[in-house]
Design a protein that fits this description.
298 residues; mainly beta; Tachylectin-2, Chain A; four-stranded antiparallel β-sheet; 20 strands; globular
């Protein structure tokens, strides 16, 4: 926005719900995905901002064994996240949507013992076609002790049906042996295949970024055997961990990979956001798997 109202676009647009104690997001909110849907199958042909987010309440949960970066056995608040939806006409003023679950979540975590019983995190939605909306999310499977990506589908964006886990990384000893967490699922313009760029964890809890490919975006995800981006060498700002990928398709089959990075000793939060560009050479099912970090002069 330009002119006198430019400052209106700066600041918080959605915070925890401090008025209704029973809702999914009384403790914290985290954006998962924001899109403008204008398809008649979604919103009567009118372009509207849709924000899919994770909401956390204050219910204490016990951290299971094997979760990277978390103290096993500790009791924490804010871990129990569910997916929520907010909508906006202008991208600044948002209204929460009261979905069918009693917390107003789009759907609940799994029942005790199910793979997503702990939380539903980082919802990302892809409009695959008319009345075909797909939400990818992740949880930590306490029984398998690994992060796992799941899928839910919807015809209208409001009522969702879980389809179960779809991807959980590689076998013991692999860079993603402890599973796949935050991810970016996109349709490749060139190959028409579905690509999942994902935050991978090894058995030691170290994170990198991996790539998996599917023909239909639902089943049969095939993973590249090596990470496409790992932590940098030396004392770089991203020398401890990389993750939280967001891939953008460019011209002539090239990709930009935006990611979060962390330096050793910086704690659990990401230290910054970087970008890597696909390099010519190696590919996996037609997709570049060699990336070079882009350095910017101050």
């Amino acid at each position: 926005m330009e002119g006198n109202r430019r400052d209106d676009d700066v600041g918080q647009v959605l915070g925890p719900n401090g008025e209704e104690w029973w809702t999914l997001d009384t403790a914290a909110v985290a954006v998962g995905d924001v899109q403008i849907f204008s398809s008649g199958a979604v919103q009567n042909g009118v372009g509207v901002y849709w924000m899919f987010y994770s909401g956390a309440d204050f219910a204490p949960l016990t951290v299971p064994a094997g979760m990277p970066g978390m103290p096993a056995g500790a009791t924490l608040e804010g871990l129990n996240t569910r997916p929520g939806l907010a909508m906006s006409q202008d991208g600044r003023n948002w209204a929460r949507i009261e979905a069918d679950h009693h917390t107003h979540a789009l759907f609940d975590v799994g029942a005790p013992g199910e793979w997503d019983a702990l939380f539903v995190a980082a919802p990302q939605v892809v409009a695959a076609g008319p009345k075909d909306m797909r939400m990818f999310y992740h949880s930590f499977d306490a029984a398998a002790q690994r992060f796992t990506v799941g899928l839910a589908t919807s015809q209208d964006g409001f009522r969702w049906e879980k389809r179960g886990p779809v991807f959980a990384g590689g076998d013991a000893g692999a860079f993603d042996a402890c599973g796949a967490a935050a991810r970016c699922v996109v349709r490749d313009f060139d190959t028409r295949k579905w690509l999942m760029w994902y935050e991978a964890y090894d058995a030691e809890g170290r994170s990198s970024i991996g790539l998996a490919v599917s023909d239909d975006g639902v089943k049969g995800w095939r993973r590249h055997s090596e990470p496409v981006l790992s932590a940098a060498d030396g004392d770089a700002w991203d020398s401890s961990a990389v993750g939280s990928p967001c891939a953008v398709s460019m011209a002539e089959g090239r990709w930009r990979l935006y990611y979060g990075g962390r330096r050793a000793g910086d704690g659990g939060a990401w230290s910054g956001i970087g970008v890597a560009l696909s390099a010519s050479g190696a590919t996996f099912e037609g997709v570049p798997v060699s990336f070079e970090r882009r350095a910017f002069e101050p």
